[in-house]
Amino acid sequence: xxxxxxxxxxxxxxxxxxxxxxxxxxxxxxxxxxxxxxxxxxxxxxxxxxxxxxxxxxxxxxxxxxxxxxxxxxxxxxxxxxxxxxxxxxxxxxxxxxxxxxxxxxxxxxxxxxxxxxxxxxxxxxxxxxxxxxxxxxxxxxxxxxxxxxxxxxxxxxxxxxxxxxxxxxxxxxxxxxxxxxxxxxxxxxxxxxxxxxxxxxxxxxxxxxxxxxxxxxxxx
Length: 221
Prior knowledge:
- The protein contains eight helices and eight strands, in the order H-H-H-E-E-H-H-H-E-E-H-E-E-E-H-E.
- By secondary structure, the chain is α+β, with helices and mostly antiparallel strands.
- The chain folds into three domains: about 5-65, Winged helix-like DNA-binding domain superfamily/Winged helix DNA-binding domain (Arc Repressor Mutant, subunit A, Orthogonal Bundle), CATH 1.10.10; about 70-140, Arc Repressor Mutant, subunit A, CATH 1.10.10.10; about 145-220, Roll (SH3 type barrels), CATH 2.30.30.
- Helix 1 (about 5-20) packs across helix 2 (about 30-35).
């Protein structure tokens, strides 16, 4: 079986993530920004991954994952999100604490361990941030009837389903005000001039800026 370094796995995951945000080939510059490294270093890695048939790469044309590369990326993402779920549900870490730890655990190679972890957790569909978890076959169950809070209408009642931004500071802020997955909200008002939204949550009123409402996904009730 093909064995990859941690760096190679990180690149595959980054390319997959960027491909979900935009269609077409991923540029070297975009990948360099994502990986916080130089474009020349990215080029060297893309050549290595291309030689292993994990992606298709042409100089100045960007890169795209092959079927094999896509399956590797999904396996890494599956491990990452399962470990995040385990850390929150079993070890009671906060949802703002688990990303960096899962970044380390996602490189464990044992498929049996990953499958047993999945079974132990009851085959969860989403991680603690509301992101879908691929199953062992690399399939991701689509999340339906889910919109951004910024698109909610006045009077709507909904449940918090996930966040688009999993940066520590943002998650800590949400935890501080008592907003977590499964929290029920009621949209009280939506200001036309700046798009900010006033909601009722946990028997208190909170106003969110557009920058925040565009990072929170909800499921209307």
